Amino acid sequence: MKTPSIVFFGSSEFSIPVLEALLEHRYYLAGVITKHGPVEKYLQTHKIPMLASPKKSDLFVIASFGKILPSNILALPLRGTLNVHPSLLPQYRGPSPIQTAILAGDSKTGVTIMLTDTQVDHGPILAQRELTIEPNDTFLTLGDKLAKIGGNLLAEIILPWVAGKLQTHEQDHARATFTKLVKKENGKINWHDRTENINRSIRAYTPWPSAWTQLNDKHVKILKATTKIETQRTLGPGELMLEHNNLLVGCGDGILIIDSIQPEGKSIMSGSAFAHGYLKQSTRTFS
Known about the structure:
Elements: E1 5-9, H1 15-24, E2 28-33, H2 38-46, E3 59-62, H3 71-74, E4 81-85, H4 97-104, E5 108-115, E6 125-132, H5 139-162, H6 195-205, E7 211-215, E8 218-226, E9 240-243, E10 246-250, E11 255-263, E12 269-270, H7 271-278
Parallel strand pairs: 1-2, 1-3, 3-4
Antiparallel strand pairs: 4-5, 5-6, 7-8, 8-11, 9-10, 10-11, 11-12
Helix pairs in contact: 1-5, 4-6
């Protein structure tokens, strides 16, 4: 069978392992459409052609492109447009399925390969693969795993799909849930919340918009924390203390250890280094 020609659409770090899987399986890339960012840099490094606009081919592939393609573009490829979506559709349609799964405390997620239509993550499903979410998974680690799984799954099903040997099945639209675009304000930490919820937000929102708070009117990013600690201390929400070289912060139902932190205008540092440098100030409470 002739190797199908593919135009690839992708713009984020998630896109790159999917693109790499296509190259490793020696699929013919007729070109890539992307925005400025990590994919553009990858294309320049590997001398892969970048297209200014879509062109006719056997197949379009989307992996984290960030735009809905209109019907006239979707009509160009002979065998349609496949989308690699990092959730088990119909759950978590939309722009932030990885963050949403972490925030919800889900124990599993997965990747869906679907046939794209003009609605958001709405089209029929070709294949899915599950993945366990580990307790310490972050947006970056989970996204990388899902992208690699999705790329390999995509590479497996392209030939049978183009040959007409693979059937699709409709999503159960009544069970669909939707995610929202992540905004900077979503990362603001509410120290009255539960420790587990705060730690999930740290894992979900690093590196952007980051889980953040304020100290003395300065922006502070919390990059990594530990929830399960043994201490006799009682701290109010946002209250800080250094104990056994650990930076403790009070939450609504307990205490977090801050492992990694970045004050405004400063480099990333350990919680203990932050404590030695900043807790001498008058304010010892995150707001």
